Amino acid sequence: MTSAPKQVPFDFGHQPGFSAVDFLIAGNNGDAHDWIARWPSWPSFALGLWGPPGCGKSHLAHIHCEASAGILLPAQALTKDDVPTLADYPSVVVEDADRGVDEAALFHLFNLLRENRGFLLLTGRDAPARWKIALPDLRSRLSAIPVAAIRSPEDDLLEALLVKLFSDRQLRVGPDVLAFILPRMERSFAAARALVAAIDEAALAQRREISVALARVVMAATSADGENS
Prior knowledge:
Layout: H1 30-38, E1 46-50, H2 57-68, E2 71-74, H3 83-86, E3 91-95, H4 103-115, E4 119-124, H5 136-144, E5 147-149, H6 155-168, H7 175-181, H8 189-206, H9 212-228
Parallel strand pairs: 1-4, 1-5, 2-3, 3-4
Helix pairs in contact: 1-2, 6-8, 7-9, 8-9
């Protein structure tokens, strides 16, 4: 009797799931999720959503856009010429607004959306009140809006995130692989995403199934690269 062939990974590309049902709710992000779900009953027309890289801010931003029929754009794409058109949307999401933004354009958008009874969701790695904003009027407005934070992940969420990240790449991993990875990895969303990508890449390059042995090699290489950087 011939044995069943092993699962060999193929690179079909992957698309992260950004739907509401794909979002993993846990203690560290429950408050932020509740804020997004509470729309349009926010105490203000604007909300700041902040947390570390890869923590799920973009996922919540997409959920909000879907619910509000809004539009999402990176902060670097915001220009003053676009503001009148953007302000006609029910809601606007400006992502990574603390990483460089046209302050005059954001100030104009802030004012027009309020006049039009629209909504504004701003995401960043820190609370808006701590952003390095030179324009005094904009800094004042950002300091006054309510905020929702996403904290570093707990073990249960981190494990669920690993499962989702592998699933987004159409990859199945056994509980033994997850049990090996979880206590040895950096405790962050960004690290989880980078590790899954590295394991996927190694599996494709070596045409191997994902196993504890493969995860061990990838994590050792990743750790060595970090120490040498």
